Amino acid sequence: MKEKLKVLLVSLFLISSPLLILAQTLLDPKNGNTPTQGTNGTVGGGAPIDHGLSILLLAAMAYGAYRFYRMRAEVSITD
To answer: How many CB atoms lie within 10 A of CB 29?
Structure first.
């Protein structure tokens, strides 16, 4: 019974947590001033994610190669 109660409480917390968290509204890029033609750009300037994605994929491939090497090394030792 205690285990079911713990699972119920944790699941209720996880389900209701998005309802309890209120997001902050986006800031106006012109600080409330009336935007003029062509000067009201996006907030953040459209930062590229190309290099970060490349580094993430490279790290994932290196980790996969390491795990494959370790797996093959363990098989060859036990044979």
So the answer is: 14
Closest of 53, 50, 73, 49 to residue 61, by C-alpha = 53
Whether pTM > 0.85 for this model: the answer is no
Q: Cβ(28)–Cβ(42) under 8 Å? A: no
Q: How far is CA 1 from CA 7, 9, 10, 13, 24, in A?
A: 10, 12, 14, 18, 40
Q: What is the pLDDT along the chain (79 residues), one digit of tens a residue?
A: 889 999 999 999 998 887 777 666 666 666 656 555 555 555 555 666 677 788 899 999 999 999 999 888 776 555 4
